[in-house]
Amino acid sequence: MHKVTASAEERMKKTVSSLKEAYAALRTGRASASLFDKIRVDYYGEKTPLNQVANISSPEARLIVIQPWDKALIGEIEKAIRSTELSLNPSNDGKVIRISIPPLTEERRKELVKLAKNQAEQSRVAVRNIRRDGNEELKKFLKDGELTEDEESKASDELQKVTDSYITKINQVLEEKEAEIMEV
Q1: How far apart are CA 140 and CA 90, in angstroms?
Q2: Cα separations in angstroms, 112 against 104, 155, 181
Q3: Residue 46: phi, psi to the nearest 5?
Q4: Do residues 104 and 29 make contact, with C-beta atoms less than 8 angstroms apart?
Q5: Which of 6, 19, 26, 41 sees the fewest Cβ atoms within 10 Å?
Q6: What is the pTM for the complete model shown?
């Protein structure tokens, strides 16, 4: 594999990984601790990830239980959850925070699928841009005499195959997320 292709593939891998991270924050009808991955809590003046100050579990399909290691943080955690766009309503008993995940409406499911499709399209565009950059780099190597036309053509074909495989991966990730969102 040519170094340009290897470098492009590494960047494409990061693009797919970043799409999966974005999808983890998309709320579905099922309770998932990953919904809270991006939430930061004010902990002694520092914005700290929620999962570093509390235990997050999902004992039932539609329930999340957050147990802070420091009970004084309950108010801060509740405030942080309420300030997100997840539209969740936490309640606490002084020891733990319980969050009931309401089922999604059909309209909200469709909005989420549309959002997921937009994110997937942005990822496909990013992968194609990486391919374009790789092809430009290969043409530069050809012009500078570092590659023959055959080598450049072979490397370009290789880059196209890698691009196609990552576009397919993005489509698979999207299909899985769509199925998860539409699941009742």
Answers
A1: 57
A2: 10, 38, 7
A3: -110, 140
A4: yes
A5: 6
A6: 0.71
Identify whether the C-beta of residue 116 lies closer than 8 Å to the C-beta of residue 124: no
Distance in angstroms (rounded) separating the CA atoms of residues 147 and 153: 10
pLDDT tens figures, 143-179: 998 888 999 999 999 999 999 999 999 999 999 999 8
- For residue 160, give Cα distances in angstroms to 8, 142, 164: 10, 17, 6
By the 8 A CB rule, do 101 and 88 touch? yes
Please return the burial class of 166, using the count of CB atoms within 10 Å of its CB with bins 0-12, 13-18 and 19+: buried
* Total length of the chain: 184
Q: What is the pLDDT of residues 14-56, one digit of tens each?
A: 999 999 988 877 767 677 777 787 888 888 888 888 888 888 8
DSSP letter, residue 36: G
Structure tokens at 161: 């195959």
73: tokens are 């943080």
